[in-house]
Amino acid sequence: MEELVVYLRKEYFRAVDLTDKSGHILEFKYMPKTVDVYEKGLSVFHMEYEMENRTKVRILEFYLTDFGLRGKGYGTACMNEIVTELGKKGITLIYSPVGYELAPLGYTGPVQYMELMKGFYEKTGFTTSGDGDLMMKILD
User: Fold this and answer.
1) Are β-strands 56-64 and 93-97 bridged in parallel, bridged antiparallel, or unpaired?
2) How far is it, in rounded angstroms, from Cα 103 to Cα 120?
3) 36 and 46 Cβ atoms separated by less than 8 Å
4) Is 116 helix (H, G, I), strand (E, B) or coil?
5) What is the three-class DSSP state of 99?
6) Helix, strand or coil for residue 12?
7) What stretches of 5-133 adopt beta strand conformation (E)?
8) How far apart are CA 51 and CA 75, in angstroms?
9) Mean pLDDT by groups of 10 residues along the chain of 140 residues
10) How far apart are the first and last CA of the chain?
11) pLDDT at 72
C-alpha cells in the first residue's frame, strides 16, 4: 500500500478532549504490514496486520503510543479511517482475535482487557464471532 496523508477535521474528534479548538491533522502512513499515525510529527497510533489473501486482513495488534490518549477518541478515529482505506483497497473482511493470556500494563487481568477490546471494536462497527474470541467486520 502506498503512503497516504489523510486530513481530519475536529468534528471527527468530538470525543477528544481538546485544550485548543483548532482542527487536528493526523498523518496516516500505510506500509505493507503496518499503519502508523502521527499528529504534529509525534506518533499517536500503531497497527500491525497481515493480509491472509487479497480480500482478508487480520489485525495482529494496535495501540495508542501515549497512555494519556486513551479514552479521548483517537483510537476510534484512527481505526475508522484505516478500515475505510483498507476497504478502498478491495479488503472485504477484517478480523482480530480478542483472547489474551496476559493483559497489558495498567489492566487488572486478561478478562478486563478482553471486555475493553470488545467494546472498542464494537464502537468501530465490528461484531463478535459465535465463539466470542474474534471480532470481525465485513466491508461493502
Assistant:
1) parallel
2) 15
3) yes
4) helix
5) coil
6) helix
7) 26-30, 34-39, 42-53, 56-64, 93-97, 127-128
8) 21
9) 42 41 74 90 93 93 88 88 91 89 75 88 92 89
10) 19
11) 83
